[in-house]
DNA sequence: GCCAACGTTGGC
DNA sequence: GCCAACGTTGGC
């Protein structure tokens, strides 16, 4: 079981949109590192849902419900999509500011490589953020 | 709106 | 295979 973090601009697709839809397919990724992370996802893995650009914070937890398949938004077979469902919202969303100011989270890719849109999260980081958000 | 970071493209 | 040019992401 692995942990991930997936980013979305709330203006494009927000946590509320995911709650409303009940599930979604995560497509449109055009970055090899992010793509490779998506290919490593297994059914049952969990991912933080993060809002980039505006309201930069982790709002909730999504569950991977379908492993990678051809991205339906392109014919190019280099790109893949996965399906996710919302699992639970954080009572207190964890802001980027909180993550950056917490020494225990200073190695998070979210901080170190801010442009990567699908990234792994360690169990330790996961537990800390879950606690901060509860 | 600006700009740093970083990924991709294409000329050589 | 290197690297300059360019495009995009995302924090501020």
Number of strands: 6
Spans of at least 5 consecutive residues whose pLDDT stays below 50 are none
What is the CA-based Rg, rounded?
14 Å
- Give the quaternary arrangement of the chains: single chain
Distance between the termini: 21 Å
List keywords for this structure.
DNA-binding, six-stranded mixed sheet
Written overview of the protein:
The chain has five helices and six strands; from the N terminus they run E-H-E-H-E-E-E-H-H-E-H. The chain has a six-stranded mixed beta sheet with strand order 2-5-4-3-1-6. The mean pLDDT is 96. It has helices at residues 15-21, 32-40, 96-101, 109-112, 123-133; strands spanning 3-8, 24-26, 46-51, 57-70, 80-95, 118-121. The chain has 134 residues and is of the alpha+beta class. It binds a DNA duplex (12 and 12 nucleotides) through loops.
